[in-house]
Every structure is written in C-alpha cells, then in structure tokens.
Amino acid sequence: MIQHYKLIVQYKGTRYLGWQVQPESAGLTVQGEVNKALAVVSKSGEVKTLGSGRTDAGVHALGQVVKASIPLTIDPGSLVKALNGNLPDDIRVIHAENSDEVFFPTVHAISKEYHYRFTAHRSFSAFQNDLIANCPFELNLEQMREACKVFIGRHDFTNFYCEGTEVASNIREIYECEILEVSQGDWGMLPPHYVFRVVGNGFLKQMVRLLVGATWNIGRGKTTLDQLKGALGPTKVHRLGPVAPPEGLYLVRVNY
Amino acid sequence: MIQHYKLIVQYKGTRYLGWQVQPESAGLTVQGEVNKALAVVSKSGEVKTLGSGRTDAGVHALGQVVKASIPLTIDPGSLVKALNGNLPDDIRVIHAENSDEVFFPTVHAISKEYHYRFTAHRSFSAFQNDLIANCPFELNLEQMREACKVFIGRHDFTNFYCEGTEVASNIREIYECEILEVSQGDWGMLPPHYVFRVVGNGFLKQMVRLLVGATWNIGRGKTTLDQLKGALGPTKVHRLGPVAPPEGLYLVRVNY
C-alpha cells in the first residue's frame, strides 16, 4: 500500500539543474536524486514526489518540503536515516513525518521564506563561490532598505518574473522584506555579508532574484524608488535590474 | 629587473591537487594558477613563486604566504587587483607588499596556525561538504580538550606524520592547541561545528590531520590519554587514529 510522507530536504544546488526532475540525459536534479534514494529504500519503482515548488539550477534549499509516496510503511526517523544513507552529501533529509494523500506541498503552502546572500565588495572571498553572490559595487544600504519596504504588500509583479511557466495571476503578497547584516564571527571562514530576506504567499519564476537585482540597482543609484514604485503594477516597464545569480538564493522555509 | 613581492593568498582547496605545482597533466594546483596569473600580469614567462609550505589536495588556506618574483615593478595594491582579475574565484590574493630577495617564506616562518573544522553528528548538513569534515560519532569534548593540552610543548612527532618528504628532525613545538565551538549564528547556513586550533613552530607532513584523528579517537574512547602521551616520542607505536580528511583543514596564518 502506498504510504505518504512529508520530508524536509536541504540541498546545496551547485551541482544540480534545479529541483525538478528532467530527462536523465539533461543532467542531475535534486528530485531525481531523491527519487533514486526512495526507490532504493522502498525497493520499488513506484515512487512519487511532489516539491513545494521548483528551485532553479544552482539555487539552494534549507527547507524544501517534499511529499513522498512510496509502497513502504516505515517509521519516519528510520526513513530519514535510510534516505541519507543513499543520498549524495549535498542533499540531506532533515526531517520526515507521516502525511496523507490529500496533502499538496504546492497549493497548501501559506507562505515561503527565501534568503538571498551577497557581498558588496570589489573583491570577494575564495570561500563564498557557490554559496554567496557578489555584487561588486558600492551599495547604499539605506536606499536598499527603503526598496524592501516598497515591495511589502499585495502587488502585481508582472515586472518581476521571467515568462516560461503559465500562471493564473501575477499578483502576490509580500509579508516581510528586509536586509540583514551577517557576520560569521571571529572563527568563521565565510566573509561578512548581507541577507535579503523575503517572506510572501508565493513567488513567480525568478521573482526573488529579480527583486534582488532591482534592489542592487537602487543601491547603486541606477534606479530610483519612484521608478520602483511605478513598476509594481500590470504595465510592462523597462527591466529594473539584473536577474541576480542563482548561487546566493536559498529556499529557507515553507509554512503550512 | 626581477622584483619580489610577499603575497597573502586565500584558497578553497577543493578543486586542487594542493599548493605545490605538478606536471600540467596531473591536474590543477594552486601554485600553478598563481604562476599563470603572475605570467599574464607581468607579461613574462620568468615567474617564480615560493610558498610557506605545501598544503595537500583538498586543504584550504586563509593566509598562505607566497613570495612572488617577477620582472615587473608595480604598486602592491595594483598587483592584488591585477592578480585577482586573472585568478579563478576560489583563489584570492588578499594582500601584497614589497619584499626582498633574501625573504624565504619557508625557513623564515616563526610559527603557523591551522584550524581543523568538523561536526560530530550522525547526520551532517548539505552545505558543509568541502568546507567542514564530519566525524559521525558521539565525542567526549572534555577528554579531547585534555588531549590538546598533551600536544602542547616540544615533542618528537614521529608517530604523527606520513613519510614521503625528507626532514632533518621530527621534533616540533606546539605553542597553542584548543577546541573551539563555532556557531554560525541565526542567519548562517553552515552548521554549528568545532574548530581544532593549533599553533606551532612547524608541522610535519599530514601532522595536523593525524593530531585531529588521534583526538577524535580520544573523544570516542578508543584511545586513552596515557596512550597518547606514550606516543609522543621517537619510538614508533601503532597508529593512534585516522588521517582526518582534507576538507576540514585550513592554513590560517604564517607568522614571521
């Protein structure tokens, strides 16, 4: 009988084409690796997984939520151990619990939290590649924090997504948006850096990376806060910034 | 005319065979990459570098010291920028200053500081691979801290090195040795971990990794402190622990 489990999965996205499974020949995906581990553990080809959402190539997750359906009844703690024994080091299942058939990680998500990590120096550290992006310019943090406030609320994010996936509406609500300063302390090897933290009821394709790119341009003085406010509507405007690179982005938490 | 510079070089060792240059066909080395960048910047094949010591494959450096001799007179700040523009992202020159012909990074070093980072959980984080080793056992930290105290002082480290390089003596002095607990704070993505910190007047081949391996065995109760004390002499004894894996090791500082 098929059993359903809710898994919390952590992954370093560097080596992967993203969450979503692809034809084998395209390359490695996180979902593909999770499916393989589930097949080994359940000794079955009848494995089905659903993630809370896609993450792009190179994007990381601290808490991706996955529904796994397998023909195996197992204690969730043992499932965690068995899966981690069959997964590559850069994918870890950190929690499992019993779930039911009607749980859908995508549609039932109330909100999601993303972090975008970046340094803002002309030079960067040898250890931040893959983990923290670099915006090699002087940035005005105060202006960027004003930009974060502009994003909060219910807006049409037509100007902050990349087409490709069909969606019913471009309206999303941002609950929290801020920039934190992170020091790794005296004994860390990672450089001090910034975290663009955003919590919302949903995000369009590449939306977080476009919000970060627009915020960088605000910080550089290339875009004004008025231009930013003007872009939060259904009318297409000239793009306000780059798509910030994937290595800085972390799907941190999905709330149900 | 050949000019001499003292460089401080940071690198993530994951992709490299180590510091020391090897025949091109063997693979990438940090010194090889630094030499290539120096050749481009000085527009010359007449490039010579000397590191403070070798680091093995996969071992990192926060502050390797390198003497670079090139037929180019350039302001040290400009040299840093030019080199970083020609180096891969996982090698960074963080400082340069003028040096002289008689400076030898190896023999003039008064002391070196190494850190060895590790977690001690059955499970580990998806982000620590390449950067923090995992010792998947319950460890008795108190006993391990006693082991650190045993190492301090002037000892014959015959039982704590791998043969391969000719050395005049196996006697070295350890000035400081301790285990620190590192939290990455609320906003870090790396897991809380331990740092085995050691400062000494010199280290034999793989010595730090063997000290760490022996300390792990003390923490697991597989080796006693008396056995450890007994091994600090010129008489060969049965090996006291594994060579801890390279990814946890960082050459932090070389003092002159």
From TrEMBL, chains A, B:
Keyword field contains Cell inner membrane: no
Enzyme Commission no: 5.4.99.12
Binding site for substrate: Y114
Keyword Isomerase: yes
Occurrences of domain Pseudouridine synthase I TruA alpha/beta (ranges): 8-103, 147-256
Residue positions of the active site: D56
Domain of life: Bacteria
Signal sequence, start to end: none
Chain ranges passing through the membrane: none
Keywords linked to the UniProt accession: Isomerase, tRNA processing
Enzyme class: isomerase
Function description: Formation of pseudouridine at positions 38, 39 and 40 in the anticodon stem and loop of transfer RNAs.
Entry similarity comment: Belongs to the tRNA pseudouridine synthase TruA family.
Subunit structure of this chain's protein: Homodimer.
Name by which UniProt lists this protein: tRNA pseudouridine synthase A
Species whose genome carries this gene: Peredibacter starrii
Gene: truA
